[in-house]
Specification:
The protein is an alpha/beta fold and 162 residues long. The protein contains 3 helices and 10 strands. Strands 9-8-7-6-2-3-1-10 form an 8-stranded mixed β-sheet. The longest helix has 14 residues. The chain is globular, with a radius of gyration of 15 Å.
Length: 162
């Protein structure tokens, strides 16, 4: 059974508008929400990239300090019920949703960062172009290989707006 990521239609529209605004450059943001059970996550808020985010054709770097402050504020306002769930970003003009080496390294950093408190982050890609984006979420986990070596395992999830 696949994972399902539930997202309010308004947040999906905000993401698509942000993707359209910066089209031809990568952009993105972070998600807040909760895991309803082992297979379903509910997104409740979107944290934008921030004023000092760096957007390039094949690279995106959010304004991490700005985002972290917004994440901390949302977490406190939600009574610690909504937590950081993961990130989304665009791959403009891409026809296949596939996490890059950099995306996987980012997921590994999230999983291993105690401050993130997220052992299975959602990494969502928006692929396509202005007005025609396709959202593909992945659930990332760290899988032990031989000895101390590990790799980031990704499972494609289902994306449902409500």
């Amino acid at each position: 059974m696949r994972h399902t990521i539930w997202i309010p239609s308004l947040i999906a529209l905000e993401m698509h508008a942000e993707a359209d605004r910066w089209f031809d450059l990568e952009t993105g943001g972070s998600f807040m929400g909760y895991w309803a059970n082992d297979r379903e996550a509910v997104i409740t808020a979107h944290i934008p990239a921030g004023p000092d985010a760096k957007r390039e054709r094949f690279r995106f770097e959010p304004d991490l300090q700005w985002q972290q402050k917004r994440i901390d504020e949302h977490y406190a306002r939600a009574g610690r019920l909504d937590a950081y769930l993961g990130d989304w970003h665009t791959h403009p003009r891409a026809t296949i949703a596939q996490l890059s080496y950099t995306d996987r390294a980012c997921a590994r950093g999230i999983i291993t960062a105690s401050r993130a408190r997220q052992r299975r982050p959602i990494m969502m890609l928006l692929t396509g172009e202005g007005g025609a984006w396709r959202g593909t979420p992945f659930i990332c986990t760290l899988q032990r290989k031989w000895g101390f070596l590990s790799s980031v395992d990704t499972q494609e999830a289902e994306f449902r707006a409500f």
